[in-house]
Amino acid sequence: MVVSKYSASGNDFVIFHAFLKKDRSEIAKILCDRQNGVGADGLIVILPHEQYDFEWQFYNADGSEAEMCGNGSRAAAHYAYVNELAPKKMQFLTIAGVIEAEVDGDIVESQLTEHKIIKEVGEWKLFDTGVPHLVKIDDINSFNIEEARKLRYEHNANVNVAEVKDGNLYVRTYERGVEDETLACGTGMCASFLFAREQGLVGNEVTVYPKSGEELHIKLKNNRLYFKGKVKNTFITTFNVT
Ligand SMILES: N[C@@H](CCC[C@H](N)C(=O)O)C(=O)O
Q: Which residues does the record give as substrate binding sites (predicted)?
């Protein structure tokens, strides 16, 4: 099979398109494996849809299906555009709802699904930005992988520590389904932005830096989150599925 590998700010994905919607949990594990597969944080499968430009299936590296993925939405939009599956400005369906995206060269902006606050857990706050994210505003160096892993299982959520420095937002994320810290997480950066904004640390727009150090932009307009940054199609390959 022919697959494309993408990096969206360091969050990496294997992407292919198909005609049939079926359980692809096993192939996600195989393709995402960093030793025996292509290697990625997630698998995205682009499928035709009658109402929208396309529909996707998103799987984490461990084969679990997730409702949404912010960085993945930008990579998928770029893939769909360059493969002539969607126009520059597109709408596509995820489990969490409809995503609007616009491709401009290697920059892609996604309008995420509606967001909400779920609950407070001490100094942490649990947001839903398409998928669940616990966020704490603290020194970015206080990110502790063991604590994050414990919270992830206690709350079935991704876990973020965020800090505002010189008006910019810095975020580190432990991702469920990858079961490790990743180089970037879009829905996590957006949840972190919401918490920082609530605390008056940022306004309606912010420049954000995930662990990869790449620059992204988030804005809140009419209570909707817009998330913008570069994506890179790192390679296209054939992969033997045996
Ligand atoms: N990396 C993604 C989020 C992917 C899903 C997440 N791991 C989950 O299972 O909730 C992003 O960029 O938003």
A: 11, 60, 70-71, 158, 175-176, 186-187
Residue 112 CA to residue 193 CA, distance in Å, equals: 13
- CA 76 → CA 29, 68, 118, 131, 180, distances in Å? 19, 12, 28, 17, 22
- Going by alpha carbons, the residue nearest to atom 10 of ligand 1 is 131
| CATH match of 116-226 with 3.10.310.10 | yes
Q: What residue owns the CA closest to ligand 1's atom 2?
A: 69
Residue 176, marked binder: yes
Return the residue matching tokens 């604590």: 147
pLDDT, tens digit, for every residue of 11-53? 999 999 999 999 999 999 999 999 999 999 999 999 999 999 9
Strands 180-182 and 168-175: antiparallel
The DSSP element (H or E) to which 200 belongs, if any, is none
Read off the pLDDT band of 191 (50, 70, 90). very high
Homologous superfamily in CATH for domain 2-112+229-238: Diaminopimelate Epimerase; Chain A, domain 1 (3.10.310.10)
pLDDT score for 241: 83
Q: Render pLDDT for 94-128 as a digit per residue (tens, 0 to 9).
A: 999 999 999 999 999 999 999 999 999 999 999 99
Can you tell me the ipTM of this complex? Answer: 0.98
Distance (angstroms) between ligand 1 centre and the Cα of 73 equals 10
Q: Does the predicted model carry a pTM greater than 0.95?
A: yes
Locate 198 and state its tokens: 């609530």
CA-based radius of gyration for the chain:
17
Angle, CA of 56, 152 and 213, to the nearest 5°: 70
Domain boundaries, the chain: 2-112+229-238, 116-226
